[in-house]
Structure formats: structure tokens, C-alpha cells
Amino acid sequence: MGDDTDLGMIKAAARRAAFARRKAAFDALGPDHADLLSDVLAPHAGKVIAGYMPMRTEISPLAAMRRMAAAGPVGVPVIQGSGMPLRFARWTPDCAMVAGEFGAQIPAVPDWLVPDVLIVPLVAFDRQGGRLGYGGGFYDRTLEQRRAQGPVLAIGFAFGAQEASELPLEPTDQWLDLIVTEAEVIAPGGGGA
């Protein structure tokens, strides 16, 4: 029990530090840096892509999502409940949106999709493909479920400033296949336990 508490405290401290780095990058650069993300997604045109609606100081994938929506289906995450994987509802640049859990915008009338490629928001990442999320485990459960069903590509999208040299990870944490920042595309060499 002590180890869980210690890891929880370590993760909380890592999140605080990463949020501060992300806010500084957001304040300095602004949210719109999806050019490299669009390039990475281009070969996947026509596949089901899952993006996300940016909140607060998150880097915005919206420009890339708009480009991909012209070529095929794009979805955004919908939280179904605590301890459950995400579901993804079809998004178009002009669809009606409403506030979902935690204030994230979701399509008013969900048309459910199963994504082949997920653009994954995060708090921090490392070059091995590790990801520190918000603590709810939604993307970890979702990626675990999707990977059990077949191939899926998980692309972390973040400011370069969100990189950490070391992350407090657990066996249940799912690894990223690629990380895209405003300045580079990182293909992790390892990953996964």
C-alpha cells in the first residue's frame, strides 16, 4: 500500500511540473502547431482517426483533424464513466457540440466510431514512448482494449517542453508509437513492458 501511495505522490509531482512546462510553452508559442501532425497523419487518410478537443493549455490538433475529416472519418473521445475505456463519436468541423465530462466538447448526437489511429493528449512524455496522462487511466484502458482487437497507432501530441527524461510509469500504462511536437517527430526505440 505504501508503494502505491508513494507512486501516486511521485506521479502528482511529475504532473505539476509538466503542467507548468506545458503552460509556459502554450504562453510562449500559442496552441496551433499541427503542421507536423498533419504530415504524420497524411498516409493514414481514409482510416478512422481519433483526435481530441483541446482544453486549457493543450496543444491543438484541430487543424490536422479538419484536414483528415476531408479524407475520412474523425472522432473525438467521449468518457463513458469512471474505470471505463473511451468511446469515440464522429466529429466534423461544423458538427454541433455540447459539454461532456470534465468540460470537454463532444458531438451533440454521437455516431460511434472505432479508431485505427489515435491522437493522444498528455501531460508529459519521454523518448521511449512513455506517457503521463491526467490520472484517470482513460487512454490506457482504451489503448489496451484497442490493441487486443488489432493494430492501432497511438500518436502522442504535445509541446516539446512536455518531454521528461524519466516518468513514473506503471505496468498498466500504455506506450505511444510516435510522439509529435511542434518541432519534431519522435519514433520511440523501445516501449512497453
Strand order of the largest sheet: 6-3-2-1-7-10-11-12
Main sheet summary: 8 strands, mixed
Strand content: 15-25%
* Structural domain count: 1
CATH homologous superfamily grouping: NagB/RpiA/CoA transferase-like
Enzyme class: ligase
Protein name: 5-formyltetrahydrofolate cyclo-ligase
Pfam families: 5-FTHF_cyc-lig (PF01812)
GO molecular function: 5-formyltetrahydrofolate cyclo-ligase activity
Structure in a nutshell:
This protein has helices at about 1-30, 35-40, 60-70, 140-150; strands at about 50, 75-80, 85-90, 95-100, 105, 110-115, 115-120, 125, 130, 155, 180, 185. It has about 190 residues and is α/β, with parallel strands linked by helices.
Task: Explain what this protein looks like in three dimensions.
This protein has 193 residues and is of the alpha/beta class. The protein has four helices and twelve strands, in the order ααβαββββββββαβββ. It has a single domain, classed as Rossmann fold (3-Layer(aba) Sandwich). It is 28% helix and 20% strand. The strands form three sheets. It has an eight-stranded mixed β-sheet with strand order 6-3-2-1-7-10-11-12, sandwiched between helices. A two-stranded antiparallel sheet has the order 4-5. A two-stranded antiparallel ribbon has the order 8-9. Helix 3 links the parallel strand 1 and strand 2.
